[in-house]
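ok trying this again, last paste got cut off
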Amino acid sequence: MRLKKHIIIPAILSVILVFCSEPAARNSDWEKTAEQWSLSWSDEFEGSGEPDTSKWERPEYNRRANPQGPDGWWLKDDAYLDGDGHLVIRARKLEDMNGDGDPFDYSSGAVRSRGRFEQAFGRFEIRAQLPTQEGWWVAFWLFSASVGQVDGSGEDGTEIDIMEAFGWTDAVNHALHWDLSADGAESESFRTDVAGIRTGFHQFGLEWTAEEYIFYIDGMESWRSSAGGVSRVPEYLKITGEISTLANHIGNWWAGNPDRSTFPDQFLVDWVRVYSRRPEN
């Protein structure tokens, strides 16, 4: 994901929320309205090798270039099914990838449903186990090409970061970015510490309505916002890992320094599910 200007972080940033490592109970905030939704798309990540190409593509390019140091690549080989019902997003330290003289580079995996599945509004949920090493971050997010239309509003497309998380801290980040341009983007975000989030599998969710975005961690509401004006266009899903050695990424407030980590490391995804609201009778 991109780090952008004009980030507005509410004063409630310091609130520490505590969640268990097991899936949320049915009386959680998330499940109270479960009967209002019907499943529209999902992946349980059965099998091994390449993810289902009817649902996902795997981008591959120099995602996080650094002229003064190692680059952070997206490579297809770092997004795969493990045969035990998981999508693996792997992070690695590699030899110089592009012959630019760096002693090594880093790589991580990514999948996206671009051109395969897009939806406006609904419930979006992932169950996943976070990585253990610092120096990279993982994310579950929604995107559309129209996020780059600069018109003073996010209604024509907003990058919706349902979760961004790390291997070395209990922090979970939610964010909204719109009017993306070469100069950055308009943004609003919320970051909270979640005790126990790095142990076991956890669920991260979004309820996207015409009025607002509501974010959930382990079934409990963690943030809500309508910043920029709620997006009204279909968006595709992205599950990614990212490594950058730029100074504004390796600080303690974000991903940490990959030079201090032991790779490979992995982000395990158990499933992804998308729901549409049932018509009212």
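PB: full thing came through this time. The chain is about 0% helix and 45% strand.
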